[in-house]
Amino acid sequence: MTRARGDGGVRFAILSAAGIVLFPFLFHAINGYAGLATQILMVSIASIGFNLLLGYTGLLSYGHAMFYGGGGYVAALLLIHFMPDHPNLWLAVFGGTLAATALALVVGALAVRLYGIYFALLTLAFAQMIFFVVEQAEGITGGDDGIQSFPNALLPIGPYNIDLGTALPAFDLGPFGNLSDIKLWYVLTAVILYVVLIGMRALTRSQFGEVLTAIRENEERSSLIGFNASAYRLAAFAISGALTGLSGALRALYDGTISVESVGIDRSGSFVIYTIIGGVQTLLGPIAGTGIIMYLESVLSAHLGYWRLIEGLIFVAVIVFLPNGIVGTIRRNYLARVAKERAPSSRALLAESLRARPGGPTQSAGGAEAGPERLKND
Amino acid sequence: MTSALLETSKLGKFFGRFAANEDIDFSVAPGELRAVIGPNGAGKTTFFNMLSGTTDATRGSIVFKGADITRVSGTQRVHLGIAKAFQTANLYPEQTVLQNCRLAALAHEQGTFALEVVRRSRRLLVIDEIAERAIEQLDLGNVADVRSGDLAHGDKKRLDIAIALATQPEILLLDEPVAGMSRDDARKTGALVRKLADTITVLIIEHDMDMIMGISDSITVLESGRVLATGTPAEIRANQQVQNAYLGGHSEAELEA
Description:
heterodimer; A: about 375 residues; mainly alpha; ABC transporter involved in vitamin B12 uptake, BtuC; 2 domains; B: alpha/beta; four-stranded antiparallel β-sheet; 10 helices; globular
């Protein structure tokens, strides 16, 4: 209540926009290519959706690939079967997202009654069923081969049909590459990710987010003050599935192929890894985790056969040494520093309390430590 | 007693063959402060859980304001006007006292579910009003901004009541509200509860006989899952059956001690 009206929303909007715009150029400086930057942004949308469930709702899904791959397959099949002549990107992506949302509502209706390991196992079981169906339905999905080619979807805006493979005009940026490295795909993905990010920030601060946090913290109490906990969890699951489906649909159309791995268990596990490494319950953590792991994978797996081992070691190291994830740890340290600067040092408080009440010197001991917690809860 | 606010008839709860509650005919009038007492294992908490909807009744029915609510969920019952404070304080430990109460007020304002994913609760000034009133009624004003996990035991128990109160109930169920409190703290809480009963109906389970005899309008005694007696404190005190069953035949003087 001591805070001014603003809560850093404008600053967040500007800085995150700048970050997304500058990302592919900075990425180029560390040998990351623009295509990978595009893929990172796409997959980040799924990670953000995954974090809504893991971080803000407290549910660990081990089956999010069913939404990711499901969205991708539906988008691809829509292009092939319903619009081979006029491949419309909006419709394909919308269809894929809608299918993933519907699937999430069906799976969620059963899963949100369960907790912890049982929830994870049920989502895993559903994802494995979907995997089996996709693998077996060769006539439709291509089975193990996946779908190797489908129409290049165009983006209709007004009278124009835009090919997202079009590059931006050439402009040399020295160590940061060339503007023409960037294709319109990056621009579209950047805009969508930005909207998702700003939307997620609003959601986590909204009444909905407030109730979600309350249910995560104490479900029994939440039910007995009048919140329907299952309905909230189902809504969070559906939104999470929708974002993951959106991500998968974009990725399939961008890659121009889709494989059965996109609904596989490794894919489900990747969202867990990305989100935890970046930091659950943070807005930027899922993006950071996705970017770091996808970048390292692309750099290292080309040279090293044992990338998976390294990925596993990073995951273990983060869980053991940075349980809040990378972004979570940075935020924690930052908040602790801010609180320290604002609050008088504990030594000063101690002196003050000694002056005020001789014989009662232990009063202020918690002052400096209590700061960050209070800020976080604000 | 025809204008009862809450009424049960032949209410029963069975765990297999064991009857935790059986044939409970119970009725409380609007504005009453009714105590439910009985020895350990008499089924008091089970009875409260059936009233609040956290446990399903095996038999019988519960009628609230003339409507049968036996099959209505606990979450729905809160919105009808039945709130419960827990035997062990059941809070949001990471959040402040004010925010704990704001959540209950928010639930009251927006209902069981709302897909309100953009607008924030702070625009709802009525929530703050309700929460602040509840905090005031439980005398928690000086700790309103304290993280509830850091509160002292007595304040935690009072906050639990404040949370229930912030749901704007017509009837408040208090399960041992002063358990574990010091004598002074218990007396203070008893006085606050008595004051609450001036505006709403209160049902209270408590072992503190001093307090019960002092603040209750009427008392229901349960024993082995059944109603043994109902009456004013004076009637219950004089009831030989109650003394035998509940107090093991101790005298009235001992009861007062």
